[in-house]
Amino acid sequence: MDILKKIQDHREQEEELKWEGTFSEYLDLLKERPYLAQSAHSRVYNMIKSAGVAEEHDHKRYKFFDEDIYGLDEAMEKLVEEYFHPAARRLDVRKRILLLMGPVSGGKSTLVNLLKRGMEKYTHTDEGAVFAIKGCPMHEDPLHLVPNHLRKDFQEEYGIRIEGSLSPLNTMRVETEYGGRIEDVLVERIFFSEDKRTGIGTFSPSDPKSQDIADLTGSIDFSTIAQYGSESDPRAYRFDGELNKANRGIMEFQEMLKCDEKFLWHLLSLTQEGNFKAGRFALISADELIIAHTNEAEYRSFIANKKNEALHSRMIVMPVPYNLKVSQEERIYEKMIRESDIRDVHIAPHTLRVAAMFTILTRLKESKKASIDVLKKMRLYDGEILEGFSDVDVEELKKEHADEGMSGIDPRYVINRISSTIIKKELTSINALDVLRSLKDGLGSHASISNEDKERYLDFISLARKEYDEIAKKEVQKAFVYSYEDSAVTLMDNYLDNVEAYCNKAKLRDPLTGEELNPDERLMRSIEEQIGVSENAKKAFREEILIRISAYARKGKKFDYQSHERLREAIQKKLFSDLKDVVKITTSTKTPDEQQLKKINEVVATLIDEHGYNSSSANELLKYVGSLLNR
Ligand SMILES: Nc1ncnc2c1ncn2[C@@H]1O[C@H](COP(=O)(O)OP(=O)(O)OP(=O)(O)O)[C@@H](O)[C@H]1O
Ligand SMILES: [Mg+2]
């Protein structure tokens, strides 16, 4: 019921947006909204801008890409500032093919799709509206109707410069259908749609022997030649190639450099002069953004070939590198899993993060700075704050290697390994160790990994594994401490009593014997040492805590276990080190006694309720940490 209603609403909305009128009525529209006559490049740029731009320390983030492209803010900024923006302003880059160059599965196709889907939506808005000569298979710009000798006057009156000349087909239609009265020619609003082949075209190379240039530029319609008498009658030609259909919008050239040359030559004049040749006609003007993609190896061999010089000079190459941030890589996997058929499998917490760490490590280049190892670099790139490093250092690091992000493990490999692990073992739950093992096992059969890389990658697997060990231990520590919450509170109260006595140079009273005691220095130090408070700093630390307590008291608030971040950490660590043996015994014993079993169940429950595990992944985690602690 609901969906049917929605379908109907949608149809009504579409109906409302429709517009049809004569050319002279269209000119009235232009008087009010001159932007309707904008070029394809300008429309794409305005679409990107209309989604919003965030200024973040000296960089612009174009929100348009947020939804689908993760971790490539800087590459997207460059793409907009160096191509889309100047192209929108009719600068020379508009006359060049935009060639996205990047490693496999680095998001090139995703980016182009985002632009295409974006344009489909944008042409439904007021700002993105597009008008065309009605009944034209190339949805020609109505302004082409203005004869050349009047265009200067037109520009003075409307402030719009017209580029391109009326196509042979419409020239003929004006005569035959409208008796030469261009003001009566019908104009309609069009909406881009790849499915309906309006304003969006895609060309992908196939076997050059069988692939026909007609796929690009259309072809003669032999069934109508008899009717019109000649092959050079435009009415006997089908303007249904991808270049025709993409007019006014976006033309995607997939794997451009795999294309046979003869296809590429058409692009030379299209980009440079804004027109192309089809059949036996005068040149056909087209206004479209040509966007192509390729990988680095193909690009290198393309430019090495002298024959390609002319074409090369008409391209603008924009890098689309791999993402280099662990947390963004995790989001990429989450998205890919959501879109796949393994989305129902339980993936233990931290699994994707650990896989992402490995992947990012394979993409990073070693820094020249001795103080920065790959793990540090990985953390800094992900926005972590490390002592002794500033934003400036991170910017410098990024500048060290121009080609960083152009190689390494691709996200599809990771997802494939995860899927195959699940399918092979018929697992319903997987953890970081399963995935690391599978990533490792797959390296041998990965087509593009050299033996030398493989050695490096194996090291990264162990690095990621060590990171996971730390994460796993912390996780169990937290869960144990959580179920020892009471002990934490007691320990804390005890510490605070001692600190108070110490600062006031007073004595404590033993609750059992009533005996007067000195503050328990050993207890206080054993807690403070957990967070690195030195002997010299202990007095200041204790006084600071007392000040905090009295500040709380003044405001009528109770100072408790959660009130002081560092103190809480110290207490937890102390507790955990006291508990270490308990954890060790509890997690590794094969035949736990009743008491131990109770504790294990509590901890498992905490892991499930508070940390996103299920019972099998929680038990696996405990077992693993048990084995780590016993080493
Ligand atoms: N930076 C990224 N942000 C979001 N998703 C990404 C990113 N990089 C890769 N992906 C995901 O990885 C998968 C492969 O990406 P895509 O097909 O766009 O890559 P490609 O560069 O076109 O690859 P190919 O060279 O194989 O054609 C997609 O599911 C895509 O969503
Ligand atoms: Mg692709």
TrEMBL record:
Tell me the Gene3D superfamilies matching this sequence.
P-loop containing nucleotide triphosphate hydrolases (3.40.50.300)
**Which residue ranges does the record assign to the PrkA AAA domain?**
21-371
Could you tell me which InterPro entries the record lists for this protein? P-loop_NTPase, Prk_AAA, PrkA/YeaG, PrkA_C
Extract one GO molecular function annotation from the record.
protein kinase activity
Q: Which domain of life is it from?
A: Bacteria
A Pfam family per the record: PrkA
**What PANTHER family does the entry give?**
PROTEIN KINASE PRKA (PTHR30267), PROTEIN PRKA (PTHR30267:SF2)
Name of the protein described by the UniProt record: Protein prkA
The scientific name of the source species is Halobacillus trueperi
Lineage, highest ranks first: Bacteria, Bacillati, Bacillota, Bacilli, Bacillales
